[in-house]
Amino acid sequence: MRIALENFTKTFGDTAVIENMNLEIASGEMLALLGPSGCGKSTTLFAVCGIHRMDGGRLLFGDKDVTSVPSQNRNVGVVFQNYALYPHMNIYENIAFPLKIRKDNKKTIDEKVQEIAELVHIPELLDRKPIQLSGGQQQRVALARALVREPDVLLLDEPLANLDAKLRLEMRSEIRRIQQKTGITAILVTHDQVEAMSMCDRIAIMDKGQIVQLSTPKDMYENPASEFVAGFMGNPP
Ligand code: ADP
Ligand code: MG
């Protein structure tokens, strides 16, 4: 589904952290929000999922204005850097949780959990508890839980930050594979330009609450609009 922020503004106290941001993500696209720590990436993501109220502007899911729709009534899937799995539940129950909340029947839940567990390659782990899983496996569970109810948009906030270098490489291509297989619209927040370039269709570079350039990875690398972008993309003049 197409997602659009129009003139999005967010203030904390008297400080405007984001001012009049416009951003559109095409249906089925994976877009990176890339920028240094503190530039407003997570704030933008929190507005899309509804954790934060917007102080100005509109948010559209398809043609629907969801600006005032509370978080729990938005159909979004979220993965944070700490996977936030429910420790007392087994993996099956973790993945099934969003479906139980919306009161799907048991047969539907069984089928959907099985299907998504196969998609993320963890069908043999459904009886385990989160603590018995590796970091990469836990992240697959978090992805499964985010995707199981077929959300309008998948939001990933630094999902690879807690993984060691080898797993990070593996999960980069795994997340991209799963995103393409499901055709879901996705936003990846990261401060790592290699991650953004290798995983996403387009990159929005942010600096101090503004999008300073939005383009494909190749174009961004070859034609940076400013020294800031060039430096950030690792291709300074
Ligand atoms: P990023 O995810 O790009 O590292 P954030 O979106 O978390 O950045 O933060 C953007 C700016 O907003 C930072 O200056 C941060 O200190 C500020 N900020 C974020 N959340 C809050 C909050 N709850 N209260 C006050 N300031 C905040
Ligand atoms: Mg952040």
UniProtKB/TrEMBL annotation:
The keyword Transport applies. Keywords: Aminotransferase, ATP-binding, Nucleotide-binding, Transferase, Transport. This is ABC transporter ATP-binding protein. Belongs to the ABC transporter superfamily. It comes from Roseibium polysiphoniae. One of its GO terms (molecular function) is transaminase activity. It comes from the Bacteria. The keyword Transmembrane helix does not apply. Residues 3-233 form the ABC transporter domain.
